[in-house]
Design brief:
The chain has seven helices and 18 strands. It is of the alpha+beta class. The longest helix has 18 residues. It binds N7-methyl-guanosine-5'-monophosphate (G7M). N7-methyl-guanosine-5'-monophosphate binds next to strand 11. It comes from Torulaspora globosa.
């Protein structure tokens, strides 16, 4: 039987803070549950407004956005206590306690990983970030062997549970699958990161049934038509599933490189949502449209021909398996000193 999150969290024994981000209002804690490592991530939820209503305009487009502030949890209605900090001229600021409610106004979204592996712990821990220029040679030398080990360790269990085991079945937004056309099949469902409530933060993931694409590195020109169809289907299906509260051109559709999981999947995010952490940032997110475009001229080996530039944390296994040395070498080759030269008042370079 699968344990539930409440029962597990009640046994959580705190050890230390892995990361705390005041901008995204996310904290990740490391601890143990039944003597096995556990990571609890808590994210303060966004404010509640009744609903985002898009009224049809003269050209049939449903803009602009109207918010309702009628229920007891929306806008300022939920203020239970308010204490002024200060005021100056026309400016006032203070602290508030808001009415909380599980359905309308939950305080936070909690994620639990248990048992957490050392890879999870390193991933969630605050770390320095680096920009890597991954040439096809560097990929073959460092990254591909790592991906191979990834498969050996069975880290795709959650993906296979969704595709074949009925996991999260009640949350699936769309499933396109038939035995005879397995290679065209895919599932769209809410990403673990989304609370499923606030459409402004809509975050879905599409997982394909094809198992031969481990990352965008494996994409070739003959996958182009497949990706175009997939992109069009996503842009047709998702708005319809959410009653057109979000439109086809309001979806940011992208792929991560490096991904955390080497089975091809696509991120589908409301364009208004800046994403948590660096998930939507340049150096991590590659727009599906740009990938499709590139496949038109990359040559028969597709992305295997391209140097990919991306951001990686120094806790990532790949950093210490060769990317760190490669970056040092690249900087040297480019004539860029890693540390600035310190010059004293006599204009002499000092160590
Ligand atoms: O960085 P990468 O492209 O590999 O991102 C994987 C995405 O899958 C992330 O946005 C995760 O939040 C999401 N994800 C990871 N797990 C383990 C799950 C899961 O079990 N269920 C769902 N729905 N999404 C997940």
């Amino acid at each position: 039987m699968v344990a539930n999150i409440g029962a597990l969290i009640s046994k959580f024994e705190y050890e230390r803070v892995l990361d705390s981000n005041p901008q995204t209002k996310v904290v990740s804690l490391l601890g143990t549950i039944d003597n096995k490592a556990a990571i609890v991530t808590a994210e303060k939820t966004h404010f509640s407004v009744d609903e985002t209503i898009k009224k049809p305009g003269p050209n049939g487009r449903r803009t602009p956005i109207f918010f309702q502030c009628e229920n007891e949890y929306s806008c300022v209605n939920s203020i239970e206590e308010l204490k002024e900090i200060a005021s100056n001229d026309i400016y006032y600021w203070g602290l508030a306690v808001l009415k909380q409610d599980m359905e309308h106004n939950p305080t936070a979204k909690l994620n639990l990983i248990w048992p957490a592996t050392p890879v999870h712990i390193r991933k969630y821990e605050q770390q320095n970030l680096h920009l890597v220029r991954e040439s096809p040679e560097l990929y073959l030398q460092v990254v591909e062997p790592y991906i191979q080990e990834f498969f050996d360790q069975g880290r795709l269990k959650w993906v296979n549970n969704i595709l074949y085991g009925g996991a999260e079945a009640d949350r699936v937004v769309y499933k396109d699958f038939s035995e005879d056309k397995k290679d065209d099949g895919f599932i769209i469902l809410p990403d673990m990161k989304w609370d499923g409530v606030n459409l402004d933060a809509l975050y879905l993931v599409a997982i394909v049934y094809r198992a031969d694409i481990r990352s965008m590195r494996d994409l070739r020109p003959n996958d182009r038509e497949w990706l175009i169809k997939l992109n069009n289907k996503i842009r047709t299906i998702v708005p319809a599933c959410y009653n057109y509260a979000v439109h086809a051109d309001e979806l940011r559709i992208f792929v991560h490189y490096q991904p955390s999981y080497y089975h091809f999947h696509i991120h589908i995010v409301n364009i208004r949502h800046a994403g948590l952490g660096d998930g939507v940032a340049a150096g991590k997110a590659f727009l599906l449209e740009d990938i499709i475009e590139s496949l038109g001229y990359l040559g028969p080996n597709g992305f295997m021909n391209r140097t990919l530039t991306y951001v990686i944390g120094d806790n990532h296994e790949l950093w210490n398996r060769g990317l760190k040395d490669a970056v040092a070498l690249q900087l040297e080759k480019d004539g860029i000193p890693k540390l600035p030269k310190v010059v004293n008042k006599f204009n002499q370079v000092v160590d």
